[in-house]
Amino acid sequence: MTDTRRWIIAQLRRIGVDAPVFFLVVSRIWQFVTGPVTLALMAIYFSPEMRGYFYTFSSILALQVFFELSLHVVLINVVSHEWSQLGIDEEGQLTGTDVAKSRLISLLRTSLAWYGAAAVLFVVTCGTCGAVFLSQETVGVSEWLLPWASLVLITGGLLSLQPFTAILEGCDQLAIVNRYRFRQAVSGSLVVWAIIVSGGGLWAAVGSAAVRLCWELHLLCRRYGKFFHSFFDRAPVHRIDWRNEVWPLQWRLALQGVASWAALQMLTPVIFRYQGDIEAGRMGMTWNVLIAIQAATFSWVETRRPKFGQLAATGDSLELDRSFFRQTSISVITLLVGLVAFWTAIAVLNHSTTPFAAKIADLFLGPLPVGVLCVGMVSLQVSCAMSVYVRANKCEPFLVPALILCLGIVVLIPYFARTSGTTAAVVAWSSAITLFQLPVWTYIWRQSRNQWRIQSNSKIA
Hints:
- By secondary structure, the chain is an all-alpha fold.
- Helices cover 83% and strands 1% of the residues.
- It has a domain at 266-461.
C-alpha cells in the first residue's frame, strides 16, 4: 500500500468512513451524480404522464412493508447479539460456539418460511391492487400493465431473499454487502439508461430491479455459498425462541413499518390521485433526489447498526454513546450540506431565463415546497438515528407515537392535497415530522438511554 493511499484511508477514518460506510456512500453518491443523467433522459424520452407512473410504481411497491413486517431490521439486531460469539473462518464457513451457531441457523430457517409466504402474498395482493389504482389515470393499460406485473414479480423474488442479506448485515459483513450494492448501483444505472434510450419506457424500472436481483443471487450463491451451506447441513439443536425473542420486537416494528410508509412514500401516490400524473412526476423526482441525499448521509449511522447491537450486548454503554454521537453528527452535517446544495440548484433553475433551465426546473417542485421538504428531512434524519440507537438494545418504545404520527399524516396529506394543492400537502408532512416526531423521539431516546446507563452502571458495581 502506498503512502498516499495510507494517508487517504487515515483521513477517511478520521471522519468515520470505514469500508462499509465508504461503499454505501459511494453507491449513494453514484446514484445522486447519475440522477441528473436519468432525469435528462426521462425528460427527453418520457411524457410527463409516464414520469408520474414511473415514480408511482416505486411508491406502491414500498407497500411490501405490510408483508415483511419489518423482520429485516429485527433480524439484524437479533443476529448482531449472536455474532459476538461467532465468526467466519478462512474458508468462509461459520465458526463459534455451538449454541450461538445453532440459534443463528434456526433464525434463518424460520425467517425463510416467513419471507416466502410474505413474498407470495405481496405479489398477489400488491400486484392486483396496484393495477387497479394505476388504471384510474389516462395512460393506456398496454403501456404499463406488463412492466408493472414483471416489476412486482421481481420485487417478490427480492423480498424472499431478504433473510440472507439480513443475516449478513447482522454478522457485520457490511463491507462486502455494500460493495455489491455499489456494483448494483452502477450496473443498474447503465441498464436503466439503455432501456430509456431504446424506447423501453416503464421497462426501465423492471431492468433496474432485475439487475439488483442478479447481484443479490451472486452475493448469496457465489460469495457466501460456503457460509450459508453450513446453515443447511445440520438441524439446529438450540433454537431461537421466536415468540419471546423476535415477535415482541417484530410486531411493534411491523406497525412502525406502516407508519414509515406513510411518512416516506405516501406523498407521491396522493399527489397522483388528487393532482394528476404530471404533478406526481414532479413530486416523485423531487422526492427521489431528497431520499437519495438522506440515504447517502444516513450511511454513517445505518452501517453501525450491527456494531451498536454488539456494544449493547456486551453492555459497553460508553462506547455505544461515543460512536452514536460521532456518527450522527457527521450524518446530519453532510445531510445539511447536500440539502442546501439541492435547494440552491432548484432556486437557480427557477430564476433562470434560459429555455433549458426552465425545462429542467419544470421536472421538480418549486423552491418553497422543496425548502419545506428539506426541513422535514433533517428532522427525520435525527429521529431515525435515535431509533437505531434504541433498537440496538432489542427494544421498541416508539410504537404508539409512530401510530399517532401515521394517523396524522394519513389524514392531513390527502386533505390538503385535495383542497389546497401540493405545497400544502408538503407543509403538512414536514410539520408532522418536525413538530411531532422529532421532539417525541428525542424524549423517548433520552429516557431509554438514561435507563440503560443506570442498568449498565449497576452491573459494573
